[in-house]
Amino acid sequence: MRKQGSLFGLVALLCVADLSAAELEVRVVDRHGAPVADAVVTVVVRNEAPNESRRLPARAPSTRVIDQKSLAFTPYVEVFRPGDEVVYRNSDRTRHHVYSFSPIKAFEFVLAPGARSEPLKLERSGVIAVGCNIHDGMINYLYISDAPWIARTDGGGVVAFRDLPAGAFDVRVWQPRLPPKRPDLVQSDLNLRTDEHRRLDFSLSLLPDSRLQFDREHTRY
């Protein structure tokens, strides 16, 4: 019975620990108030570099698949950690010539219908723009970051972080359609208390969708 009581005590302690975490909901809209999907939201401890890897818990590298279907990459934006791998799959009935000119990871390969690439390791933080050399309207972005908390917004323009400790944070937002050569949008006045639920709103001024007018010779990533 003593062991059982100890087990119940441990479970209760874990439940209290979970309840003590702060929650942050981030909502991203455009200048007309419409939700913005595929915006990458990162949360970092204030006054610390956004790619400070020592704060990351130990984790095994993961592999994510980018599909090519109906002449589009899915997802449009995907989030990775350094050391993760990406695989490209061709679910179309036509060939795709996948490539990137990115200085942090240049690559290219041709995928026949139904084929998939070998896993491609992403070692460095940054943004990689990927296109198809046959279909210029196809583009996707690989966002690689060491930020302790990172996610991309859903179709409603929302992302939620439910495991933040109390403290002071910077919240950054990036989206492919933001004007080039500008830093991420940042809110640096976020102070979270234990058990607090906070919501932040970001309003973005976006350029036209690059998937409709992609210039592979002048991509900025």
Q: What report would you give on this structure?
A:
With 221 residues, the chain is mainly beta. It folds into two domains: 1-53 and 149-221, Immunoglobulin-like, CATH 2.60.40; 57-145, Cupredoxins -  blue copper proteins (Immunoglobulin-like, Sandwich), CATH 2.60.40.420. Helix content is 8%, strand content 42%. It has one helix and 16 strands. A five-stranded mixed beta sheet has the order 5-11-10-7-8, with no helix packed on it. Strands 12-2-14-15 form a four-stranded antiparallel beta sheet, with no helix packed on it. A four-stranded mixed beta sheet has the order 4-3-6-9, with no helix packed on it. 27% of the residues are buried. Keywords: Signal. InterPro entries: Cupredoxin (IPR008972). This is Carboxypeptidase regulatory-like domain-containing protein.
Structural class: mainly beta
Apparent shape: globular
Strand content: 35-45%
Determine the fraction of residues in helical runs and give it as a percent range.
Answer: under 10%
Low-confidence stretches are 5-18
Could you give the distance between the termini? 62 Å
How many helices? The count is: 1
Radius of gyration: 20 Å
- What is the strand arrangement across the widest sheet? 5-11-10-7-8
Order of helices and strands: HEEEEEEEEEEEEEEEE
**CATH homologous superfamily assignment of the largest domain:** Immunoglobulins
CATH hierarchy, class of the largest domain: Mainly Beta
Number of domains: 2
